[in-house]
Write a structure and sequence with these properties.
This protein is of the alpha/beta class. The chain folds into 2 domains: about 60 residues, no CATH class; about 100 residues, Rhodanese-like domain (Oxidized Rhodanese, domain 1). Helix content is about 45%, strand content about 10%. A 5-stranded parallel beta sheet has the order 1-5-4-2-3. Helix 2 packs across helix 4. The longest helix is centred in the middle third of the chain and has 16 residues. It is globular, with a radius of gyration of 17 Å.
């Protein structure tokens, strides 16, 4: 589903198609995490690599490996529907804003707050099935990595977010567009 990685790819497009790219570039090369190592949306991957004295081949390998790893942290909308219908015990967490959650959500989900995050980190076990979702699936991977880093290794993100879930499996959930997306 993602487009091919290539040197002329603009960073904005790269980050849209490979949501974990920002995390991968920062973790591996300290690129894009702060003002001193930032990049512009219209810069190409080749330009960012050149400016940071980074081998383009190393960056492409890192991004491909990261993307492969990230795909393993995602659950397809159809698979989530199967899980919900089978009544498999799981925790379905909405990481969007309170306003979005109150307006439109997946039945049975709860809004992620700092309070319930603390409770989850204290009470859930490494084999607890936790599914996180956002609007379009662009921010969920960072949250999955955060949960897994706290020992909750059966945490997954909904691929494509609530938008793809509404499109593919539950048309009763209204789709919407945010001006800041």
């Amino acid at each position: 589903m993602s487009l091919d990685l290539h040197p002329g790819l603009a960073m904005e497009t790269l980050l849209k198609e490979y949501p974990g790219a920002r995390r991968a570039l920062f973790a591996s090369f300290h690129i894009g995490g702060c003002q001193s190592c930032a990049y512009k949306d219209d810069e190409t991957l080749a330009e960012v690599c050149k400016r940071n004295d980074l081998s383009l081949e190393e960056a492409l390998t890192c991004l491909k490996d990261s993307h492969t790893h990230d795909q393993k942290m995602l659950i397809a909308p159809e698979k989530l529907k199967e899980q919900l219908e089978s009544q498999t015990p799981l925790l379905l967490l909405d990481i969007r804003t309170r306003e979005e959650h109150e307006a439109i959500t997946i039945p049975g989900s709860e809004l992620m707050t700092q309070e319930n995050q603390s409770t989850i980190f204290s009470n859930e076990t490494e084999d607890s099935l936790i599914i996180l979702f956002d609007h379009l699936g662009r921010n969920v991977l960072d949250q999955c990595a955060w949960f897994r880093g706290h020992g909750l290794i059966e945490t997954y993100g909904l691929d494509g977010g609530i938008d793809r879930y509404a499109e593919k499996v539950d048309s009763t959930i209204k789709r919407y567009r945010l001006e800041i997306d």
